[in-house]
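Predict the assembly for these two chains.
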Amino acid sequence: MRILVMTKPVPDPAANAERLGPDFRLDRGASPTVVNGNDEYGLEAALQLVEALGGEVAILTMAPAGGVETMRKALAMGALRGVLVADDALAGADIPTTIRVLAAAAQTQEWDLLLGGLDTSDGAGGAVTAGVAARLGLPLLSAAAHIAPDEAGRKVRVRRLSAKGYDLLEAPMPAVVSCTQALGTPRYPSLKGIMAARSRQITTLSLADLGEGLLPAGGQWPSRVVGVQPPPSRATGRAVTGDAASQAREIADYLTAQRII
Amino acid sequence: MADTRHDPLSFVRPAGPVIGIKPLAPSDALATPLDDAPSAAPLSSNPVSAMALSANMVEMSLPGRPADRNGPNTTAARCYDARVTQSGPILGSTRLTEEQVLLREAVRVLADERVAPRAAEIDRDGAFPEDLRRLLAEQDVFAIPFAERHGGLGADLLTLVLAIEQLSRACATTGLILAVQALGATPIQMAGTPEQQDRWLPGLASGEKLIAFGLTEPDAGSDPSGIRTRAVRDGDDYVIDGGKRFISHASVADYVVVFAVTNPGAEKPSRRLSAILVETDRPGFAVTRVEHKMGLRGSPTAELAFDGLRVPVANRLGEEGQGFAIAMKTFERSRPGIAAQAVGIAQGAVEAAAAYANQRRQFGHPIAELQMVQALLADMDAATEAARQLLYTACAEIEAGGGEAARWAAIAKLVAGDTAMRVTTDAVQVFGGYGYTEDFPVERMMRDAKITQLYEGTQQIQRLIVARSLAARAPAL
């Protein structure tokens, strides 16, 4: 079983230091970075599959050259090697370009499953993993809560989160899976893993290595951010006090006045 | 003063990758018989006073370091190619290597996310935290002070100290788990044969097995010349009778390194003892009491009784009569571990006090804006940083193999222990009445800090070592 996991470096949500530059793009120097949460859940699932079935896990990242540091964190968890697509021409890349580049990079590798997060905690477009599947013409098994390849390595079954529980999806491999928190808690890298990751290979590819036609015609992103607004602050809540009967009455009156009941 | 290049008890350093610094003068031989000069320090030639000097309540204590690592020169190593001791400071002598920073960060994350949430509970329950012992094993934290060929990371003393510090910042009991493992393993690394090392060290590096260090007895604390436990040769066995007291982890350990009298008639009291590794499941080994302590309440401190305890002679570490020297050399590597525990406790207290001062409002402002509180916090932070940097330099000096390891170890532990006591006491002051309750962690830190002034040699013993070293260096006028 060969699994390639797309891992995006994102600002560490715990650091709470995310900041935008003057062009509304992420200021990458402002915050420490970590592997995007949903990607990390996918990586954990991939590592468990390989531990059970044999094979190898590799990671694929599109980021500036400094993304190597975050990739080491994924390698420390147990991925054996990494592929980094880094090219100055990709600064500020939009979603369609990101999809084209990652799909092209994925095609340079051999794998049975390609995993990526359902979305990322910084961009939150939620389209890249699905877009890569479409670009490659492969089945997409989305919003995975559980991933189970068959013993023969020909098919994969995925539980897809749904409003009523989950749907059971099946597809032939190779296939693309978008990953969620429901896959389970990622492991801490062991100290030996951290040391081993330092010598694991990270191959860096540029756009020139991936062929023509990946950038939009004319060199301009078709879409760009033109403004940023913080969400309006929430109105102060209203506390309901008194004994239970009067509280119930007050809430019922309020909901009636709002024509909710 | 002893030259460690010829010190038979120096660590053997087989070739292999290095984390951290490269020693100045790698020794390439180990357990040859001890020569007559007790190696530990430039102390008196009177063995009894030398003994009183460096011995002490050792067993409750700590870490040491691995038998090997070292090898090809590294960039990181070169900045240590000079002694700091009396020739002036060497710039960059305590800069951490990239590996040390990575490992420290990994342990910090474990400490913050997995250890800290358990600390109050461990203190309240007074039970050894098996879950955290497993965590340290799974994440290779136990592996830090062991050689790669024994399944370890081959890290140096400073790297071990960084890990103990980070764990202790969250929970001193948990920091001690690593420290005691390293302490107990040090005699094996230092004086064990390759066969003994292959037999025992892999299980300790993986954390599958725990080890304790058994020197102190009820009447032999600071003065190990009072040790009465006897080991009498009987064929291929020793038969051990006697007992030990204040032995950290002895009730949960798989092995205890027991220091027993094998040569009662030796001319020098320092040649009476031998170090013998005892498996705790042997008949005749009994835990007779576990202490109820003021702090470190999750760390079991046991009293042991040996009654006709048979152990193969093959379990002896080093030669007969080397036990005292092995113990003293072990302290040179284990006292920095206790100093690290102390620095970690102090750091935890500084952080807790600063956070509280920012949030607690009196007179209309956070108390962190009050000058008297600011002064307390500033002194706490400065003292903690000073103790830390002294400790890191001490580690570099000890690892580099200069002749003053015992002095550096004593100074680091003395300063760090006293700092931890003062800083935690002041942290309670910053919290006011709230700090005196179990609702906040600083009263626990204050109780935990006290032990660092007592074990691994009392502060008085540390001062004795430092004073003797100073007197030996000073020219006679």
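Chain B touches chain A at residues 19, 99, 102-103, 106-107, 109-110, 114, 138-141, 143-144, 153 (CB under 8 Å). Chain B has a mean pLDDT of 85.
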